[in-house]
Amino acid sequence: VQLVESGGGLVQPGGSLRLSCAASGFTFSRYAMSWYRQAPGKERELVASIGSGGGSTNYADSVKGRFTISRDNAKSTVYLQMNSLKAEDTAVYYCNSAPWGKNYWGKGTLVTVSS
Questions:
Q1: Structural contact between residues 5 and 110, judged by C-beta atoms closer than 8 angstroms
Q2: What is the block-wise mean pLDDT of the chain (115 residues), using blocks of 10 residues?
Q3: Are 18 and 81 in contact (CB under 8 A)?
Q4: Residue 110, C-beta contacts closer than 8 angstroms, at least 6 positions apart
């Protein structure tokens, strides 16, 4: 299983970024996908998740109304559209899935929100 995140970078407060996670090594369309983040000195936290078919999503309270998770099963890719970014969104963002009951993680992509 491989999960490869991309799309992170430096953005000003109020700006937007779109993260992508390309998955391989398992039948992507059968499994839920999630985005987590870990800020410096803090524990990793769940940001958003999406069901296998894309019809079911949930979000952390801190990102509701600003972030949107989506997936393209034909491309085995999950996305996280992040709008109205705040300094407190600064973190390494990780893609996650759990095929066969085992957790798999990407290496992460750094998002820095700063003026």
A1: no
A2: 98 98 97 97 97 94 98 98 98 95 96 97
A3: yes
A4: 8, 9, 91, 92, 93
